[in-house]
């Protein structure tokens, strides 16, 4: 809520990097924040502002306590990648093997829906109407962006992506999805039933997040960019 940015430093499979999560203050000051999570992958805040982090290495989701130590929320979640909280506090966890788990406030883990397994990750985002948006890149030439209702009904929002990665909804409920495939890489606005709109051309984007003031942050594997201007459709110009 203060505009602080958190970044996972995931590393290669099984690699223990010195810093698992980096914190960047609103003024741009960067500092190490958490260590000890092998392959820290995705993050989400619950309604109380508590940070949660997934590990794709050990299939665990961790909660960061007020003293910045870690406690296990749930384990044995497969290749735990994307995580997101619903408005009622339910935690959703995407297992790269194809299952999205639902975890209630009691900590009980229940398989929610099954999608095709991914070769990279399951990225999750909660929409304004509490539906769950999912990307799960495969080896297919055309990958899908899914929308999952709270009842578990799955429908396809878009089939226009080659390798969709991170996704996020802005305050108005608009869905943005990063595309990593060569030749079409960038950030896209996705509206169901309409062609996707390229908002920013950039290569190898993975993560995307909005700050409390509506500014946007996008991340590649080694660089993070902040955009403080409203996004408009990107148009290529000659010259």
Keywords:
mainly beta; four-stranded antiparallel sheet; 239 residues; 22 strands
What does this structure look like?
The protein is mainly β and 239 residues long. It is 0% helix and 46% strand. A four-stranded antiparallel beta sheet has the order 4-5-6-7, with no helix packed on it. The protein starts with a strand and ends in a 12-residue tail after the last strand. 37% of the residues are buried. The mean pLDDT is 91.
Mean pLDDT over the residues: 91
Rg over C-alpha atoms, rounded to the nearest angstrom = 17 Å
> How is the biggest beta sheet arranged?
4 strands, antiparallel
Q: Helical residue percent?
A: under 10%
Q: Give the termini distance in whole angstroms.
A: 42 Å
Globular, elongated, flat, extended or rod-shaped: what is the shape?
globular
Low-confidence stretches: none
Q: Structural class of the secondary structure composition?
A: mainly beta
H-E string: EEEEEEEEEEEEEEEEEEEEEE
Annotation field: number of helices: 0
Strand order of the largest sheet: 4-5-6-7
- Taken as a percent bin, the fraction of beta residues is over 45%
Number of E-state strands: 22
